[in-house]
Write a structure and sequence with these properties.
By secondary structure, the chain is an alpha+beta fold. Helices cover 63% and strands 15% of the residues. The protein contains ten helices and eight strands. The longest helix is centred in the C-terminal third of the chain and has 67 residues. The radius of gyration is 41 Å and the shape is elongated.
Length: 444
């Protein structure tokens, strides 16, 4: 009887592992807006900015708690190792002229108190309550600025990769064009109408194009890795970009001459910072005012010669209603120094706002000039590329009928490749210029 061969368990295990890994990989097909939405949820900088908002919410809760009533309990047990001794005139004991030592108190005493306290007025707490919304707005605005910075970079990398598709398409067209030329020249060589040197030169050109394509594909792959990292996406996931870009897409959107500073999130951020500076000044100014508090206390007291508090014995009620006014008189000019420091902080913020306005004016004008120039250059390079392609086609026809030389066709191809490279560069520069302009006017 023939023995059954054991199953190849290693092969089955490997297949299972490969299947698990394949299932773990996720494919994402993202437009530019979907890529930005993904980054807003997964980019670590955005996550930390959102955590800062949650942190500020808890700080606000702490500030609010100061205005709420506070309830506390206090239990104290004393072991008087040496009971306090006082002297009284001996007249009380029939010994005039003498001082009689008498111990006042007992060895053990216990106090148990419950106290309810309500702050009625504290200027700094009052201002803190007023500043809660501004503090949250400040943290939220920081999130928006972080998201915008991520958004700008995603726009640039995303469309760089989209433009790279056009670059690869042009390289493929060049390779196909040179492959056909190689075939035609090879046939001419076989029939004695071309030299072996002509075939070799075309072979060199073809190899250079294929090498250039390999480099472009590697560069695109690195670009995808960078985009995934920026978005917070696992590098093992597959990312497919669904948007395309054309000359008309870049040109869309009229350039606005008007500038609204409030459209810039950095400007909004500084405006909130200014508001917080003003609250800070008020907070320190209010520190010169008295604080007012009301408290109610109720408790029990017990006295023993031995530690028998858990046994029967007398407990005495204690209660009090307290109204406290704390009046600051002199603190060594510390409060005055804090007020002046906060006023200086406000002046610095106002200076930063003025400087930001100048920077925005310059950024908008500069971005506008660069955008207009980039559009003109893109149109020029596109026409030049089309002309270079036409020249190449005509030169190739002349070469095929024997009225042109190999040198001419090589020069025409070099000019065509240069024109294509210039167009790709101009196309990407125009995209970057548009992103920078939209960012400058706060419309990205």
């Amino acid at each position: 009887m023939q023995k059954r061969k054991p199953k190849n368990w290693l092969l089955l295990f490997s297949i299972a592992i490969i299947s698990t890994v394949s299932q773990a990989q996720t494919t994402h097909q993202f437009s530019i807006s979907q890529a930005i939405d993904y980054a807003s949820k997964n980019n670590v900088q955005v996550k930390n900015a959102l955590l800062s908002v949650l942190h500020q919410e808890q700080v606000n809760r702490e500030i609010t708690a100061a205005a709420y009533p506070s309830l506390g309990a206090d239990i104290t047990t004393n072991n008087n190792l040496k009971v306090s001794t006082q002297v009284v005139p001996g007249d009380f004991f029939g010994q005039p002229g003498k001082l009689i030592p008498v111990e006042f108190g007992v060895k053990y005493n216990t106090n148990a108190f419950l106290q309810l306290r309500q702050l009625l007025f504290d200027g700094q707490v009052f201002v803190g309550l007023q500043a809660r919304k501004a503090s949250i707005d400040f943290a939220n605005k920081n999130v928006e600025i972080t998201e915008e910075n991520i958004k700008i970079n995603i726009y640039k990398i995303y469309y760089q990769l989209v433009v790279s598709k056009t670059q690869v398409e042009l390289l493929n067209a060049n390779i196909e064009r040179i492959q056909k030329l190689k075939h035609d020249v090879t046939e001419m060589y076989k029939n004695g109408f071309a030299e072996k040197l002509d075939v070799d030169k075309i072979e060199v050109t073809l190899t250079n194009l294929q090498t250039e394509k390999t480099k472009a594909l590697n560069s695109i792959e690195i670009g995808y890795l960078g985009l995934k990292t920026l978005m917070g996406m696992p590098v093992k996931d597959n990312l497919i970009l669904t948007d395309s870009i054309s000359d008309n897409d870049i040109k869309q959107g009229a350039l606005s001459d008007s500038i609204n500073y409030n459209d810039r999130k950095e400007f909004q951020y500084l405006q909130i910072a200014k508001q917080l500076n003003q609250y800070n000044i008020k907070r320190y100014q209010y520190s010169f005012l008295p604080t007012v508090a009301l408290s109610v206390m109720y408790g029990k007291q017990a006295y023993r010669q031995k530690f028998t508090f858990f046994e029967k014995g007398d407990w005495y009620d204690v209660s009090a209603l307290s109204f406290n006014i704390n009046i600051p008189i002199f603190s060594g000019f510390a409060k005055n120094a804090r007020v002046k420091q906060s006023k200086i902080d406000l002046q610095q913020t106002e200076n930063n706002i003025s400087n930001l306005k100048l920077a925005i004016d310059n950024e908008v004008e500069s971005a506008k000039l660069k955008f207009n120039s980039a559009i003109e250059n893109m149109d020029f390079q596109k026409k030049n590329m089309q002309l270079a392609e036409s020249v190449y086609n005509q030169t190739k026809k002349k070469f095929e009928v024997g009225t042109g030389s190999n040198t001419e066709i090589n020069a025409a191809h070099t000019d065509l490749k240069t024109a294509q490279t210039n167009y790709i560069t101009a196309l990407y520069d125009a995209i970057i210029a548009k992103v920078d302009f939209l960012k400058a006017i706060g419309k990205l």
